[in-house]
Amino acid sequence: MAIAKAERLMNLALCLLGTRRPLSKRELRGSIEAYLEAGSDDSFNRMFERDKDDLRELGLVIETVENLDGDTGYLARRDSNRLPPIQLDAEEAAALGLAAKVWQQARLAGAASGALQKLRAAGMPEAEDPYDIPHSALEPRIPVHEAAFEPLMLACRDRRPVVFEYRKANAARPEARHVEPWTLECWRGHWYLAGWDRGRGAERVFRLSRITGRVRSRAGAFTAPVPDVSTVRETVESWAGETATRSARIRLRAGCGYPLRARALSVRELGDGWDELEIPYGHGLDAWLVEFGPDVVVQEPADLRADVVDRLRAVAKG
């Protein structure tokens, strides 16, 4: 069974790499013997989808293209699946080894481990891991709790549009968003998606914890150009509140809100268990303050106070 599957995957990869135009499922089924032997259309479709996912897991970049008739085709462009010779020194190899250990999410952990094995097979030097110490207190990890992360990660990788229900912090109900996903960024322990919102015709940033329900993929190509990665990262930081344009004054309960205290420009004791903080104020600060609930009271500016109150009311409405 293992040999038969490996042969089927190899034949599918050769078909996708050898074509100059996208091939439909019907054409692929007629070109690969194992697919011809499938008992029914449902059996073939399940087999093909598994094989396609397996090839992508192995690193093959497979594009999904919709033609003018609305039919979906697949191909693997040679220029997208060819790498130049890889030469890494010991320090670079150590950095990659460390990066491969940070993922707790199962799919990414397996992908990172497989990538390291391929690089080592290609001659990457073995590097001593400075974190590989018994009982070490240093254990780098990136937590991923949102169910939307994995389908969005795959959609970013494959450049596939997606649809999901998104609930803004100040909205009582979620609404459908049609998005061309660009990249995922982690900021202060929260994951954000940056992409092109087709409904609004503009670049938008979405916090993954506010995505409800299932992320659904859509066929077709992107309609907006994908910006440089560094530009997207700056956008996420600005949207999430990293870029401050002014300052705000808040009351913070004593012994609470240590992340806020770490960013404070000044702290003054007010007595009765409260402190007054001056903190940098940028886009997204209202959403962050809401997370501290009754331990934070905004004093000024008035627009920030109003935004926080609106968000709290939306949460209270459920």
Walk me through the structure.
A hairpin with a 5-residue loop joins strand 2 (63-66) and strand 3 (72-75). It is built from 11 helices and 12 strands. It has helices at residues 2-18, 25-31, 33-36, 41-57, 90-99, 106-121, 149-158, 229-240, 258-263, 285-290, 302-317, and strands at residues 23-24, 63-66, 72-75, 162-166, 175-187, 190-197, 202-207, 211-217, 244-253, 266-271, 274-282, 296-300. The strands form 3 sheets. The chain has a 5-stranded antiparallel sheet with strand order 7-6-5-4-8. Helix 1 packs across helix 4 (41-57). Residues 133-137 have low confidence and may be disordered. It has 318 residues and is an alpha+beta fold.
Key words describing this protein structure:
five-stranded antiparallel beta sheet, alpha+beta, 25% strand, 12 strands, elongated, four-stranded antiparallel beta sheet, 11 helices, 318 residues
Question: Mind sketching the topology for me?
Answer:
Elements: H1 2-18, E1 23-24, H2 25-31, H3 33-36, H4 41-57, E2 63-66, E3 72-75, H5 90-99, H6 106-121, H7 149-158, E4 162-166, E5 175-187, E6 190-197, E7 202-207, E8 211-217, H8 229-240, E9 244-253, H9 258-263, E10 266-271, E11 274-282, H10 285-290, E12 296-300, H11 302-317
| Pattern of helices and strands | HEHHHEEHHHEEEEEHEHEEHEH
Beta-strand segment tally: 12
What would the average pLDDT be, to the nearest integer?
81
Number of helices, where a helix is a run of at least 4 consecutive DSSP H or I residues: 11
The percent of residues in helical segments reads 25-40%
> What is the global morphology?
elongated
Q: Beta-sheet strand percentage?
A: 15-25%
N- to C-terminal separation? 51 Å
Strand order of the largest sheet: 7-6-5-4-8
Biggest β-sheet strands, sense, barrel: 5 strands, antiparallel
Low-confidence stretches: 133-137
Rounded Rg: 24 Å
Structural class: alpha+beta
